[in-house]
Amino acid sequence: MFGLQSIDHVCEVSLISGCNAPAATPPDVFIELPHGATEMHHLQAAKRLTRQYPGDRHDLFFTANTDQGSPEYALRLAEMLTETDPSMKVLILRCLLPRTIVDVNRIWAKDEEAGAAGLTRGVPDYITHPDDLAKIIAIYERYQDQARKGYDVVCGNGGFAFNLHTYAPISVKPNPDEYIVDTLIKAYQPDMVDTWPKRPVVELITAPPGGASLTDDALCAGIVEAYAAIGIEALENDPFPLHPATMAYEHAVRYPGQTLTLELSRASLAEVFDPFIIMTICPEKVETMTRPPAAAFQAYREKRSGILTP
């Protein structure tokens, strides 16, 4: 599919086409879901990659740290764009590798930088066996090959790419003297949850620390305004910037002004937010949270194309 292919237990490729979209032309939009492994069967499959998984209790770290809601959000965004403009095509790449085993949104050679910045590493500290690391590196590279092709086929032909994520509504700082799962369980106790910093409902990640924006500022302003119109505050690079240790940064440098990392709080998409289960994603909430960026992107695209809206 435009040079990309689905790979069992690694990634899933899908194409959403408008009813008038020409078959031979490249897609207009690429959506990458680096943390799209959101189901327990994804974790169970990935456990076979390592003999050093900490045990079933660590499954709670997976549910608390995977981007639940992102596949539903991405699909609805693609549908909205192609419904509004039936000539459009949207290519979606969903990673099926849990980030608690390998985080494909990290640059392998910059793991120390990621850790120092408070980001999760490409491979967690509990995986150290050389054979396991070799398997994980190989499967990581297979995914990156598909992701680069996606950016190249879309952005390389003048299109735009979204790197979509979801996150927990609070920022929990790991305690180096405590098992991460224990830290999270304590953090979400009713008497503790309000003591942690709250994250915004929407975050646009556009610039590296101390650097200039690598995306289109007019599009970002349009998205911020569209969310504000429904009473939702969207912030840029708060609390996290576009860190050079991430693959999202690498793609943004390769295609400046043609990519955007957009993140939503999982609580804005779930029926009931609970970090320690696979949550039910609410279609009505997905609809509400997807309309602002869809409308803003369509307006941005029409303005750039010189198309006048009625």
- Low-pLDDT runs of 5+ residues are none
Strand order of the largest sheet: 1-3-2-4-7-5-6
* The CATH class: Alpha Beta
Task: Indicate the mean pLDDT.
Answer: 93
Shape: globular
Major β-sheet, in short? 7 strands, mixed
CATH topology label: Aminopeptidase
Number of domains: 1
Number of helices: 9
Strands, total number = 7
The helix/strand order is EEHHHEHHEHEHEHEH
> How big a fraction of the residues is strand?
5-15%
Q: Rg, please? A: 19 Å
**Backbone structural class:** alpha/beta
| CATH homologous superfamily heading | Zn-dependent exopeptidases
Q: Which architecture name does CATH use?
A: 3-Layer(aba) Sandwich
* Residues in helices, as a percent range: 25-40%
Distance, first to last CA: 35 Å
